[in-house]
Design goal:
The chain is an all-alpha fold and 43 residues long. The protein has a domain of 27 residues. The longest helix is centred in the last third of the chain and has 25 residues. It is rod-shaped and about 45 Å long. The termini are far apart.
Length: 43
């Protein structure tokens, strides 16, 4: 988190994109699963 704050001040973000992309992928999958279950539940 400190690297993100420091990087934003310098105009660059030394943040590894792989964990960020992985978290986004997991979030998208969870939202898709929740949407599928919700649509299946409603008549």
């Amino acid at each position: 988190m400190q690297g993100l704050v420091t990087g934003s001040r310098q105009g660059e973000v030394p943040l590894p994109l792989l964990p960020l992309a992985g978290a986004a992928l997991v979030t998208a999958a969870a939202l898709a699963l929740a949407g599928a279950l919700a649509s299946r539940r409603s008549p």
